[in-house]
Amino acid sequence: MVLLRGFVQLTVLLIQSGWRGVAPSPTDEGALRTGHGDHGEPGHQEPHKDSYSTFASEFLESRYLSDEGYPFPTAPPVDPFAKIKVSDCGVTKGCLRYGKPGCDAETCDYFLSYRRIGTDVEFEMSADTDGWVAVGFSSDKKMGGDDVMGCVHDDNGRVRIHHFYNVGQWAKEIKRNPARDEEGIFENNRVTCRFKRPLYVPREETLVDLHLSWYYLFAWGPAIQGSITRHDIDSPPVSDRMISIYKYEDIFMPSTAYQTFNSPICLLLIVALTFYLLMGTP
């Protein structure tokens, strides 16, 4: 009876061990986890938990945020170009306009403003062109030996400030550029810019002291690959008198098309023709 009971217990143990299988040894368990089985089959591998997987999971979680959130840092917005205030002309800054009577910084053929800011002078220029706009500081009303500041629209859509020196009728670019705090925009087929330049500079041939009075030369024209070409007008307009940086005026100069009707000779002809038509022929 005792032998029979022992036989039954042994049979039960054998059945249980055969059903469950033999537990692998610690060595075999490590091999299955890190390498291959006895027959070259890939064993079970634990997931690789490292900094990369942590980063990837955090990245995927941060990629989809609420409407108020931003998944990635963004660059600060760029301030748009502030429009030129014509209402300040003659009050807090001086202005020179060339074009149609009543024109402003967006409609004049050429527009220039200036004002003192500490030890600097701020200039604003705008012209009806897709190339460049410039102002020259001259001791006379002729081109040649003039200090010139120009705003040039390049092929990349940028407007850059350049320094030139008039050699005869041609502008030579000078490496020393006194401009700072540069701004520029090309919009509506107009080149517009704003920059500052020191009021006082060391005495040099290509630079003038702006605290002195100068004739202002106005010029604009096309550009090729960021380089200026000949100006649009054969004889660029020039201020009638010397301009003082300390006196804020609002000066208007009619363009050629409007100068014809404003000339004294033309007015006399109009008066004579009107009188002739009213009196009639004898």
Q: Which short descriptors sum up this protein?
A:
single chain, 282 residues, alpha+beta, five-stranded antiparallel beta sheet, DOMON domain-containing protein frrs1l, signal, transmembrane, FRRS1L
3D architecture notes:
The longest helix has 19 residues, at 2-20. This protein has helices spanning 2-20, 26-34, 51-63, 256-262, 264-279; strands spanning 94-99, 110-117, 120-127, 132-138, 147-153, 159-167, 170-173, 180-187, 190-198, 215-221, 223-224, 227-228, 250-254. A hairpin with a 2-residue loop joins strand 11 and strand 12. The strands form three sheets. A six-stranded mixed β-sheet has the order 8-9-3-2-1-13. Strands 7-6-5-4-10 form a five-stranded antiparallel β-sheet, with no helix packed on it. It is globular. It has 282 residues and is an alpha+beta fold.
- What is the straight-line distance between the termini? 166 Å
Strand order of the largest sheet: 8-9-3-2-1-13
Q: Give the % helix.
A: 10-25%
Identify low-pLDDT runs.
19-44, 46-78
Based on Cα principal axes, name the global outline: globular
Number of strands: 13
Largest sheet: 6 strands, mixed
Helix and strand sequence: HHHEEEEEEEEEEEEEHH
Rg, Cα atoms, Å: 41 Å
Structural class: alpha+beta
- The average pLDDT score comes to 76
Count of helix runs: 5
Share in β-strands: 25-35%
